[in-house]
Each structure stands twice: as C-alpha cells, then as structure tokens.
Design brief:
globular, mainly beta, about 0% helix, four-stranded antiparallel β-sheet
Length: about 90
C-alpha cells in the first residue's frame, strides 16, 4: 500500500509462549520500522491492508480456537476488534 509492505515475525519462547513483532517496510529504501508496539497479538495469522482507507487488519488465531480481527488506523491506533471463526487470515475489500 503506497510503497509500503507489512509483515510480522513470531518468536517462540522456551515456555512455548509467543512474542510477535509487526513491521512496515518502505519499498524504496528497504528500511523496516516496528509498528503496533503497544499491542499484544500473540497468534498473528494474517495481515491485510484496506487499499481504500489504508487501515491495517491483523488476524489473530489461537490454535484450534475462534480468533479475532483487529483494525488499526494509519497512526497505529486500534479502531476496533471483532470476533471471527477458526483461523481467520484473509480479508476481502470491495
């Protein structure tokens, strides 16, 4: 979206808990900037950007359980969170 790509990396700790970090990468420079640093989304399963608004959606899916979808504004504030079925990962924007 607008020359940026978004991704996340999950680290598994010794006690099998997870730490997930989210990044915005500038395609022109290749520099990665941490985003969503104040939020805990331990089971990230998908990341999507609304091409019409720039809102970032993160799908959270604990193994075998219903998940949640978080919507973040372009300033990384949480707009809302909604429940979803098992393993949400992709969103469709019309």
């Amino acid at each position: 979206y607008q020359g940026k790509i978004y991704g996340y990396a999950t680290e598994y700790t010794e006690d099998y808990s997870t730490i997930t970090a989210f990044y915005q990468v500038d395609c022109a420079t290749g520099s990665a900037t941490p985003i969503l640093t104040g939020y805990s989304i331990p089971n990230a399963y998908g990341i999507n950007v609304n091409p019409h608004t720039g809102d970032l959606y993160v799908c959270d899916s604990p193994y075998g359980a219903n998940g949640d979808v978080y919507c973040f504004a372009s300033d990384w504030t949480l707009r809302y969170k909604v429940g979803a079925e098992v393993y949400p990962s992709k969103l469709l924007f019309l």
